[in-house]
């Protein structure tokens, strides 16, 4: 019998790829805007992660909740806003912000479209300094929303000076599509938005900018090996000892470091990851509940049902009935 929890670390997938595979990321682009100061837009929050790229100029982002977190955004910066978070984007904190719907109506007469299928930039605002901005969204499934939300903690700001060559190349391509839309530009911008997101997460890991959560854990080489193992095989019979072995650490040091970086004990993360994987299999609809329970490490249907209900709030069968039809 093969012990699945004791293979070489090379057998485990890249942990960030494992996360992105699990959340079914789909990018889309709202559009590009050339906004003259003073300008401001706001949203009560949408179900998707929002991605802003300042191609030229500057902006200011503020969350419209109790945290009142805010950040100045310079040319070349990228900001990812957690799904569902109300926020405002302005040229300065004192500018009046209108809703995105009001902006579309007010700028309707000035919306310029290219000859191809890609939209030209929306031009709006006052006579002051102009900011060129690309707005996109990144949709994830329900199980992935909380997972990515814990990594973003409101918003994730990536200054231009911390961007690596890969992200700089993507931003250059994005700026080119905005400046000169051509046939296929909308599809190109959508793919570029997804790449911006991935590169932003990579850069956040590299610079240790993430707060406690799995994203911070990926920045710790030993903890990352354990996370990769969990994400590659959630159904394995993981224990703190076997995960500490994957990390190359003592049991006590591993348990303490894992909790400090990831924000939860190792086996709590195993359980949560198993439930996210189970949710995806339930949405897929091809496996029986018994088979799904086995795939995520439960020999007993009753035990799986109990844990899944505690995680999702509903039993597995009801979760499957409520899930959207796979596309």
TrEMBL record:
Classification via Gene3D superfamilies: Homeodomain-like
Q: Which UniProt keywords apply?
A: DNA-binding, Transcription, Transcription regulation
Q: Where does the HTH araC/xylS-type domain start and stop, copy by copy?
A: 224-322
Task: Name the Pfam families for this protein.
Answer: Cupin_6 (PF12852), HTH_18 (PF12833)
Q: Which GO terms describe its molecular function?
A: DNA-binding transcription factor activity; sequence-specific DNA binding
Q: Which PROSITE patterns match?
A: HTH_ARAC_FAMILY_2
Matches recorded under InterPro entries: AraC_lig, AraC_XylS_family_regulators, Homeodomain-like_sf, HTH_AraC, Tscrpt_reg_AraC-type_HTH
Q: What is this protein called?
A: AraC family transcriptional regulator
Q: What is the originating organism of this protein?
A: Sorangium cellulosum
């Amino acid at each position: 019998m093969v012990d699945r929890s004791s293979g070489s670390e090379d057998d485990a997938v890249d942990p960030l790829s494992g996360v992105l595979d699990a959340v079914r990321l789909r990018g889309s682009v709202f559009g590009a805007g050339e906004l003259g100061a003073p300008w401001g837009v706001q949203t009560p929050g949408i179900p998707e992660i929002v991605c802003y790229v300042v191609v030229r100029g500057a902006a200011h982002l503020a969350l419209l909740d109790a945290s009142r977190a805010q950040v100045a955004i310079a040319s070349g910066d990228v900001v990812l806003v957690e799904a569902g978070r109300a926020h405002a984007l302005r040229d300065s904190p004192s500018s009046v912000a209108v809703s995105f719907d009001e902006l579309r109506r007010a700028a309707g007469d000035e919306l310029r479209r290219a000859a191809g299928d890609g939209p030209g930039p929306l031009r709006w605002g006052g006579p002051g300094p102009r900011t060129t901005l690309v707005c996109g969204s990144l949709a994830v499934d329900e199980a992935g929303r909380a997972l990515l939300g814990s990594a973003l903690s409101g918003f994730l700001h990536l200054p231009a000076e911390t961007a690596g060559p890969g992200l700089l190349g993507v931003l250059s391509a994005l700026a080119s599509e905005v400046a000169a839309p051509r046939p296929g530009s909308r599809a190109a911008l959508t793919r570029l938005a997804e790449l911006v997101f991935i590169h932003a997460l990579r850069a956040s890991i590299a610079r240790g900018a993430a707060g406690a959560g799995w994203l911070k854990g990926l920045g710790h080489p030993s903890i990352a090996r354990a996370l990769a193992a969990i994400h590659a095989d959630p159904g394995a019979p993981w224990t703190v000892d076997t995960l500490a072995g994957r990390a190359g650490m003592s049991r006590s040091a591993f348990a303490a470091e894992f909790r400090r970086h990831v924000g939860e004990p190792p086996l709590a993360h195993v359980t949560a990851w198993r439930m996210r994987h189970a949710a995806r299999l339930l949405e897929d609809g091809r496996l029986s509940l018994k088979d799904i329970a086995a795939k995520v490490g439960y020999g007993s249907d009753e035990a799986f049902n109990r844990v899944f209900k505690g995680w999702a709030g509903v039993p597995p069968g009801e979760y499957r009935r409520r899930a959207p039809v796979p596309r």
